[in-house]
Amino acid sequence: MIIRDIIFSTDIDKYIEFIPIFQISTCPENFPKREEMFAHHPYFLDYEVANIESKKGLTSYCISNKSKYEDFKESKIPDFISQQHHNIETKNEILYLINALTDSYFFYYGFNEYSSRRSWTISLSKIGELHYSQEGYLPPVYENKLDKLTPKQNYEHFDPPMLRLTQKDNLTFKIIRLNDLLKLYYSFNKNKLKEEYLNACIVFSKSLKLENYDLSASYVFMVSAIESLISIEFRNEETKNCSSCSQQMYKVSKKFKDFIDKYGYKIGNEVKNDFYSLRSNMVHSGKLFSISYQRKLFIENQKDIETTINNANELNRYKLFKDLTKACFRTFLFDNFKS
Questions:
Q1: Residue 333 sits in which domain range?
Q2: 180/316 same-domain check
């Protein structure tokens, strides 16, 4: 069964396909669209889902009392609820992967983590008119179930290549594309590695969502996404205890830098130390990016000019680390899912 949902991105005119699993394409011209360059643009996400029927689950009929195990009974879950839950899980998996493996960020309104927000807003078409409104999107009527996924002829594929260096007798580069990575992921049998990798993608996708609210919080989640991959890399490593205090020795900073060298690209130790110390200062000392403190940037005195320059430098460091993180996600998938 093929489901069609509407998702959003700040990107314009992207087309991504991995048939027969999913397609992402821009909505038709008759769909409401924002004219601003950095606004949210609607896309169709067409994706295949399994037909879920007769699923059972445990329910309790003693909500007001302390339930005992024998109070729980297994009963049939309504098919439409089971199907909706499965559809959302399938859609989320696609978006988490695309967000981690490409330079785009896709999301949708509603449903828990992507819940719509209520706030005071000003209509751009009628400046000065204030409304209390909620995020959302009311599209024209459209077909939400399709028979099959068909490649579109008039779209330019969004499939930027990733170069992978192979060190053998000679230096060679292997061109890896998004479809290559998705094929490795979807053809891989479900096991612990696939589950843990998707969890890391979820953390990274949340960091992209936080980017719209606070760069410091986004950066912390981004480092955590790398650390999620590191935990997979060293899951079978034998832990060592400190001789003086008997506590486990993790060598967190060294693992972080070695991981970047292996799956990202070679950068100097000073830069790697800076990337990790930024996160440590935020988490342990509360020292955020200066832009998070909302300083008076509109007053042009010497101090504020210095702050403006510092903010620009921090934003550049953030973008560099985001590019590095995406490179790590791509290379980690390619190297670990090939078997």
A1: 160-339
A2: yes
